[in-house]
Design goal:
With 325 residues, the protein is mostly beta strands. It is built from 2 helices and 27 strands. The strands form 6 sheets. Strands 2, 20, 21, 22, 23 and 24 form a 6-stranded mixed beta sheet that branches. A 5-stranded mixed beta sheet has the order 1-19-18-17-16, with no helix packed on it. A 4-stranded antiparallel beta sheet has the order 3-27-26-25, with no helix packed on it. The longest helix has 11 residues, at 2-12. The N and C termini lie far apart (50 Å).
């Protein structure tokens, strides 16, 4: 009976053999002076923007745009190449832009429209050649009871993403899932931590490392799992299990590390100014104090640098990671 109770307690706390309990993350390196501003010139972009990378391009999406919602820059020197995607409700316009992903093999962008429940397809070469007249194609329709969000494209039959399952007009559950863009079928994977209510996470995927990383933005909690969603470890931070904090942003997986924006401040006045750095097993290494309020960031492996959008004195910038990690 005693053994049964121990097993039950272990199951209820969802412990795995490699769980990390980190009581302090205090090795802080100030890098604000190392941030280089990116000048977008005459291209006006709102404060709510995301940065994405493809092989040759830096792509900035503007959720507050009055006109064009996507801006493409040369990744090497950041000069502007084209802007496209008219905001509106017309047949070739984007009403409520969701996530952008790139298909490097076919040289395409895919953009989800959360109001039209569609994913649009853009040919990279064509849209850069004629951004004003280009007419996108419909890649697929999105099911209204299973909505992929923040997804990672592998191929047409395999994407990973957060799956939003509406439970009422104003509430929803969130899961991690595998998504077949050809058939529209979605398979829910992973598990929910038993002490977490209203699971809300950001997701990173590495096919090379065969791993998924979920970073919670309402708990000081992360988890690492395999590509089938089997939890390898939970990573509990010093603020676990405090509620009401703004914690992690979208994680990034590099060849050697997991990088995650972090706030640790109380909503709604919280600001995200740090990047926590872990090894690929979730062991804490150091914290970068960026010094600017991070909206979004992405990792440029070719140049080993982070590219940021900020809600601060500068709007876009990058940090050369050579000599830092």
């Amino acid at each position: 009976m005693y053994l049964f109770v121990l097993l039950l307690m272990s199951a209820c706390t969802s412990q795995t053999e490699g769980d990390k309990h980190q009581n302090g993350r205090e090795k802080v390196v100030n890098v604000k002076s190392e941030i280089k501003e990116i000048d977008t010139g005459d291209v006006l972009i709102g404060n709510s923007s995301n940065t994405y990378l493809s092989k040759d391009y830096l792509i900035i999406t503007d959720y507050q745009a009055y006109d064009k919602v996507v801006h493409v820059f040369n990744k090497a020197d950041f000069h502007h190449l084209a802007s496209f995607g008219t905001k509106g409700q017309g047949p070739y316009e984007i009403t409520n832009m969701g996530h952008l992903i790139t298909d490097e093999v076919r040289r395409k962008f895919y953009i989800s429209d959360n109001s039209k429940y569609k994913i649009f397809s853009y040919d990279i070469d064509s849209v850069l050649a004629m951004p004003e007249s280009y007419q996108q194609q419909i890649k697929m329709n999105i099911k209204r009871d299973q909505i992929p969000s923040d997804f990672h494209y592998v191929n047409d039959t395999l994407c990973y993403g957060r799956i939003i399952l509406p439970t009422s007009a104003s509430t929803f559950d969130q899961h991690i899932g595998k998504w077949n863009m050809t058939t529209g079928d979605i398979k829910i994977i992973g598990e929910k931590h038993p002490e977490v209510h209203n699971k809300r996470t950001h997701l990173a995927v590495s096919m090379e490392k065969k791993m998924l990383v979920e970073a919670y933005y309402n708990y000081d909690l992360m988890n690492i799992s395999d590509l089938d969603g089997n939890i390898q470890c939970y990573i509990y931070g010093p603020n676990w299990p405090t509620k009401g904090l703004e914690t992690f942003g979208k994680p990034l997986i590099t060849p050697q590390n997991i990088l995650v924006p972090y706030s640790g401040e109380t909503r709604p006045t919280s600001k995200t100014r740090q990047i926590h750095i872990f090894d690929l097993k979730g062991n804490y290494e150091k914290t970068l104090n960026i010094g600017y309020d991070i909206t979004y960031c992405c990792y440029d492996e070719q140049h080993h640098r982070l590219i940021f959008s900020f809600n601060d004195d500068i709007q876009f910038g990058y940090l050369d990671l050579k000599g830092i990690i």
